[in-house]
Amino acid sequence: MPVNLPDNLPAIEILRKEHIFVMSDLRASTQDIRPLRILILNLMPLKITTETDLVRLLSNSPLQIEIEFLGLKSHTPKNTPIEHLKTFYKTFEEVEECFYDGFIVTGAPVELLPFEEVRYWKELTGIFDWARKHVTSTFYICWAGQAAMHHFYGIQKYPLEKKMFGVFSHTVNDKSFPLFRGFDDQFYAPHSRHTTVSAEEISRQPELTILSQSEEAGVYIVASRGGREFYVTGHSEYSPLTLHNEYLRDKQKGLESVELPKNYYQDNDPEKEPVVRWRSHANLLFINWLNYFVYQETPFELEKISELGELS
Predict the structure, then answer these.
(1) What is the pLDDT of residue 23?
(2) If we measure between CA atoms, which residue out of 45, 58, 293, 269 comes closest to residue 260?
(3) Sign of the CA dihedral 89, 283, 27, 38?
């Protein structure tokens, strides 16, 4: 099934060139089926790139999906045209009374700040609280995962001596957990962050379950409320060249601590193409989330989401 996107979203033409089926609002309205409603709060600076990366993964599901984008009132991005934001992004006031099958919150380049010093922290945590009553399952990525665990459970983040940067091997703690159906015993995912969370601290919280870890990158995926919330510390949604572009960006800034992303370039040579090790598991991760924790759990009447408890 295709992804239903707002007319003229830049991601549409990019994805069509990749032979990914997307449809306009007009065509979708003629299909006699209730699509899954997915809301994306995009906190990344390069919003069009992130939109495309996420839609690419969501499009691989056999389910029809209707995507909306959410922006913050208390933060105006500098790297995305204001016309794009006005055309494709809704304010919280516009969605506050709505219900969604799924919600994705991206990372943000503010991880070195204390949470409470982030300019939009109050608005963001208000949205986190809203999601618990208006969304079947929420998928928090990177800094958003750290922020949500801190807000709900008091989990702290800790600065790393050097940036966790590259593609790392991970294992699954419970192979029967539906989110990892079809996964190999070892799988790869990109990371790009300056902070980490403590597995020991998370384990002391009875409502949190560490589902996947990496010897080198640490905690990867944490769940709460039976799968109504997932906290993912890495970037499985990254496209093949995202880490390369970040590496070049940091070098151009003259940062002395910039290192090559690990396990990424052929022969560890930045002049050669990256080796993409994470694409299949990234697709499985999002497909399984949509299937087992959104589609199979969400009520047909979205308003009844507020009546859901923990997922079984």
Answers:
(1) 54
(2) 269
(3) negative
Cα–Cα distance for residue pair 1/302, rounded to 1 Å = 21
For residue 153, the model assigns a pLDDT of: 98
* Residues marked as catalytic: 142, 235, 237
Q: How far apart are CA 219 and CA 158, in angstroms?
A: 13
Q: How far apart are alpha carbons 184 and 280 in whole angstroms?
A: 10
Q: With CA atoms as reference, report the closest residue to 282 among 251, 248, 249, 238.
A: 238
| Residue 163 labeled ligand binder | yes
Q: Is 272 annotated as a binding residue?
A: no
| Separation between Cα atoms, residue 92 and residue 34, nearest integer Å | 23
Is 192 annotated as contributing to ligand binding?
yes
Task: Return the domain boundaries, the chain.
Answer: 3-158+195-239+279-306
**What homologous superfamily is domain 3-158+195-239+279-306 in, according to CATH?**
Class I glutamine amidotransferase (GATase) domain (3.40.50.880)
HSE-CB of 249 using CA atoms within 13 angstroms: 7
CA distances from 292 to 2, 178, 220 (A): 19, 7, 19
Tell me, what's the pLDDT at 3? 61
* 185-202 core/surface letters (b: 16 or more CB in 10 A; e: else): eebbbbbbbbbbbeeebb
Regarding pTM above 0.70, the answer is yes
Which residues make Cβ contacts (< 8 Å) with residue 263, sequence separation at least 6?
A: 166, 167, 168, 169, 188, 275, 277
Spatial separation of the C-alpha atoms in residues 236 and 225, rounded to whole Å: 22
| pLDDT value, residue 31 | 42
Find the distance separating the first CA and the last CA of the chain, reported in whole Å: 27
CA 45 to chain centre: 14
pLDDT at 307: 83
Low-confidence stretches of the chain (pLDDT < 50) are 1, 26-32
